[in-house]
Description:
This protein is an alpha+beta fold. The protein has a single domain, classed as L-amino peptidase D-ALA esterase/amidase, CATH 3.60.70.12. 23% of the residues lie in helices and 23% in strands. The chain has helices at 81-87, 102-116, 148-157, 220-226, 258-266, 268-274, 320-341, 358-367, and strands at residues 30-39, 45-54, 65-74, 78-79, 89-90, 94-98, 129-133, 175-176, 179-180, 182-189, 198-206, 245-252, 284-291, 345-346, 352-353. The strands form 4 sheets. It has a 6-stranded mixed β-sheet with strand order 5-3-13-12-11-10. Strands 1-2-6-7-4 form a 5-stranded mixed β-sheet. A two-stranded antiparallel ribbon has the order 8-9. Strand 1 and strand 2 (45-54) form a beta hairpin. Helix 4 crosses helix 8 (358-367) and helix 5 (258-266) crosses helix 7 (320-341). The radius of gyration is 20 Å and the shape is globular. The two termini are 21 Å apart.
Amino acid sequence: xxxxxxxxxxxxxxxxxxxxxxxxxxxxxxxxxxxxxxxxxxxxxxxxxxxxxxxxxxxxxxxxxxxxxxxxxxxxxxxxxxxxxxxxxxxxxxxxxxxxxxxxxxxxxxxxxxxxxxxxxxxxxxxxxxxxxxxxxxxxxxxxxxxxxxxxxxxxxxxxxxxxxxxxxxxxxxxxxxxxxxxxxxxxxxxxxxxxxxxxxxxxxxxxxxxxxxxxxxxxxxxxxxxxxxxxxxxxxxxxxxxxxxxxxxxxxxxxxxxxxxxxxxxxxxxxxxxxxxxxxxxxxxxxxxxxxxxxxxxxxxxxxxxxxxxxxxxxxxxxxxxxxxxxxxxxxxxxxxxxxxxxxxxxxxxxxxxxxxxxxxxxxxxxxxxxx
Length: 373
């Protein structure tokens, strides 16, 4: 396993993580990756992939979840969000990939779902949720290297428990705060008095400026920006600071209604802000939150009608604050985990992107007055 924030004494927020400190601590949620890493004969480098989040075991359309969406900044793209906004339902897995692979991942998810769907398919339709960030600095993004078999591999890899982080899956070619970025995850478990629910987050972090980076509130980015990094390349020769995006998925087992899921998704903005992000024009910051607490919603089978009414549970608004706090903390920690897990990536022409090394981060924190907890 890779090193994580808590392994080096970083304690973000006041909440307690779940057993895996991952989005998979929400019962039934599974995560899978397919990582593409290849150096081609013509000098092009493939550094990309697919990450999938399955909200429940089995076909998502047969057991939908209430869900909501929030867009902090719209310089990005996604599929399937309008139906979530309209119906408040998540009826597919959620996939992360690169900007130019949204279409193939979406189409592949539809084809794979059709393979697994039984019964009359005459009225079948699907609008999978696929989110993207741009990996064209480190990856040959216009080579369109993500193919249907890679989406299949990510789905087949989906599992509960520990989640691989850093330069894996959709995060393979991503850059965060001008260091190597990628996939990160974290979770929080509320006390019994707060409801006992779990909140988990997973991010594909490809955003932010180095000088603005905060860890546990300490301005480590200012220190890191002054340092001469021990290699002949620097990301800032390749792009302007802040170029990129972050996409987030938040899951909870609390019985939230769709409008409450939207409110939960909004709290991803706070976690991003606490690490010094969320202020760039050239960043697509798109968040989806889903809740598994109502587990008897009718299948998204548009050829048949379910019951005319349904019994539902709803979290009293008086108990939402701990959920919001948990979501913000989980997103904040997930971003730091993504940075720590991602190593240096070299690319052509003597350029590349530094990983944020553990000792480098600890030294910057110490200079700011931090002490491990």
